[in-house]
TrEMBL record:
Record keyword Cell division present: no
InterPro entries listed in its UniProt record: Adenylate_cyclase-assoc_CAP, Adenylate_cyclase-assoc_CAP_C, Adenylate_cyclase-assoc_CAP_N, C-CAP_CF_C-like, CAP/MinC_C, CAP_C_sf, CAP_CS_C, CAP_CS_N
Membrane topology type: Peripheral membrane protein
Entry annotated with the keyword Coiled coil: yes
Cited SMART domains: CARP (SM00673)
GO CC annotation: cell cortex; macropinosome; phagocytic cup; phagocytic vesicle membrane; pseudopodium; vacuolar membrane
Chain residue ranges for the region called Disordered: 219-264, 279-301
Pfam families according to UniProt: CAP_C, CAP_N, CAP_N-CM
Protein family: Belongs to the CAP family.
Biological processes annotated in GO: actin filament organization; aggregation involved in sorocarp development; cAMP-mediated signaling; cell-cell adhesion; contractile vacuole organization; establishment or maintenance of cell polarity; mitotic cytokinesis; pinocytosis
Protein name per UniProt: Adenylyl cyclase-associated protein
Gene name linked to the record: cap
Length: 483
């Protein structure tokens, strides 16, 4: 009955939102009739006021039920969506300010979006602080796509920017659907609500902010800042009891362009780079032929399992001197966690079980060997690291990695490579039927056995460039090959 009551409550809220939108349209039509034949532009702030109202309608229609679902799934997810609600409230305030103000300078605009930026940073911090969470895919979907908030800085076509951020979330939302479709309808509804919001946000932007955030050329000067939203907007469910305290705000100077940039999902990097305008590419260096990895004569070869020094799972992993965080090598419930290892080439996971998963995070210059059969393997944010495993029941996934090598000595149904630069995948004779899925990645090679055991491995490059043609009402896409 609780599930039925929750569904009915959500439907009633959506019906109430639809009624409010109809009343808004009715008032607008009545106002237009009273104005006689006056042109629409003479209405002054009416279109801008409609833009603010419609933005709030989007939040009421999609984000309010989205927040309710999140609070039912996990407290850490509830805390993250509270920050999302606050960020959207700050963005609504910016839209309202724009309706009454002249467009400020780019530097002033970057200052105006600081409240949005702070909430986005907390969203990213909550994801990083809960990597062992059962809803880590949900946390990551929001974190990876939170850059959609920066559409207010994008010109002249902000809507495609939101579409790109929606695509960034799909790596994780697809995993949620794959895991919970037919098992947990709340998770499926969660994904559908978020996708629907980002889709309708694109339509909203095309209608009210076609070439960028709409400012009022007859308005006054914009203030230097917008107040930060510290609480969810009206209509949002209250914060869950016992939820952990939010992370502290980032230190001053976080947006300093001289500091190292965060990954693309970090809003500080998004906003500071967009604030440079056309100068964003001025600091890029030209890549010469000798800098390309394919011309490197010292390119590493296959990592052989026999060359690895064998230890047991109880062996303490050696840590590199003074790492940013202490190295971790432990079995937590059914998940092996190998994190923050630097220069450790003797990591062996020997006592495995088919129900277990392996999560390898922020390792560098290390080698991890996985014996036996596990359920799934995830390699996240690793650099110059090699993974050798025998069998995986589900998949092996690589995301946000640089210069990694993966060797399959047994079988694995699929290998997923996302946002990775430089990947050498070695397949055994048994694993030639493996499905390889790639997205937003480069410098990928698959090496397969030769015709005989004495032959060298055959190296095949994974296509990175594609050609698409319109054929009737369909798109035909094929990989480009340069001979």
């Amino acid at each position: 009955m609780n599930q039925l009551e929750s569904t009915l409550d959500t439907l009633l809220k959506r019906l109430d939102t639809a009624t409010q939108r109809l009343e808004t349209v009715e008032k607008a039509l009545a106002s237009g009739a009273a104005a006689g034949s006056a042109p629409a532009a003479a209405a002054g702030s009416a279109p801008s006021a409609a833009a603010v109202t419609e933005f709030q309608n989007l939040v009421d229609q999609h984000i309010v039920p989205f927040v309710a679902l999140s609070k039912q799934l996990a407290p850490e997810l509830a805390q993250q969506v509270d920050e999302l609600i606050a960020a959207l409230e700050s963005e609504k305030q910016l839209i309202a300010l724009a309706s009454n103000s002249k467009k400020p300078t780019q530097d002033a605009l970057v200052q105006l979006i600081q409240p949005i930026n702070l909430h986005a940073q907390k969203i990213e911090a909550l994801r990083n602080a809960n990597r062992s969470s059962k809803v880590f895919n949900n946390l990551s979907a929001i974190s990876e796509s939170i850059g959609f908030l920066s559409w207010v800085l994008v010109e002249p076509t902000p809507a495609p920017h939101v579409a790109e951020m929606k695509a960034s979330a799909e790596f994780y939302t697809n995993r949620i659907l794959k895991e919970f479709k037919g098992v947990n309808q709340q998770q499926v509804d969660w994904v559908q609500q978020y996708n629907a919001f980002l889709g309708d946000l694109q339509k909203y932007i095309k209608q009210y902010h076609t070439t960028g955030l709409t400012w009022n050329p007859k308005g006054g000067n914009a203030p230097s800042s917008v107040p930060a939203s510290s609480a969810p907007s009206a209509g949002a469910p209250p914060a869950p009891t016992g939820a952990p305290a939010p992370p502290p705000p980032p230190p001053a100077g976080y947006l300093d362009d001289n500091k190292p940039k965060k990954p693309a999902a970090d809003m500080s990097a998004v906003f500071s780079q967009l604030g440079k305008g056309e100068g964003v590419t001025s600091g890029l260096k030209k890549v010469t032929d000798d800098m390309k990895s394919k011309n490197n004569p010292n390119k590493s070869s296959v990592v052989k399992a026999d060359d690895l020094k064998t230890t047991t799972t109880t062996t303490t992993a050696k840590a590199a001197a003074a790492p940013a965080k202490p190295p971790k090598f432990a079995l937590e419930s059914n998940k092996w966690c190998v994190e923050f290892q630097k220069g450790n080439k003797n990591i062996v996971i020997a006592d495995t079980d088919p129900r277990q998963t392996v999560y390898i995070y922020q390792c560098q210059d290390s080698v991890i060997q996985i014996k036996g059969k596990v359920n799934a393997i995830t390699v996240d944010n690793c650099k110059k690291t090699a993974i050798v495993f025998e069998n995986a029941i589900s998949s092996c996934e690589l995301v946000n990695c640089i210069s990694v090598e993966v060797q399959v000595t047994g079988k694995v149904p699929s290998v997923s490579i996302d946002k990775t630069s430089g990947c050498q995948l070695y397949l055994s004779q048994e694993s030639l039927a493996t499905e390889i899925v790639t997205s937003k990645s480069s410098e990928m090679n698959v090496l397969i056995p030769g015709a005989t055991p004495n032959d060298d491995l055959v190296e095949i490059a994974v296509p990175e460039q594609y050609k698409t043609l319109v054929k009737g009402n369909r798109l035909i896409t094929e990989s480009m090959s340069h001979v």
